[in-house]
Amino acid sequence: MDYRVDDRALTAEAFLAFASQVWPGDYDAERTRAALARTLTQAPEVNYISILAGEQPILDAKGQPVGMISGSDFVDSIS
After folding, report:
1. Distance, CA of 26 to CA of 24 (rounded, Å)
2. Which sign does the torsion angle of CA 58, 64, 67, 73 carry?
3. Cα(38)–Cα(12) distance, rounded to whole angstroms?
4. Spatial separation of the C-alpha atoms in residues 2 and 19, rounded to whole Å
5. What is the pTM of this model?
6. What is the mean pLDDT of each run of 10 residues along the chain (79 residues)?
7. Mind giving me the DSSP string for the chain?
8. Kind and range of the H or E element at 57?
């Protein structure tokens, strides 16, 4: 697989709009962000990703910017 890091933005919402055209359904944006982080950080030299909502960084529950995220920032299962 070839890829190029070019600083172009991909939001979870934009990805979901595309995915819904191919696989119609209801998708959760937070779970999609986790899936994108876990998937994209598997590529060599990609350790973290940044996800924006529009042109603004996504915020945590306290209203603070989430910043860079990695696949390990998300829990696979709680059982």
Report:
1. 7
2. negative
3. 13
4. 21
5. 0.58
6. 56 73 80 81 80 76 84 70
7. -----------HHHHHHHHHHHS-S---HHHHHHHHHHHHTTSTT---B--EETTEE-B-TTS-B--SB-GGGS-S---
8. strand 56-57
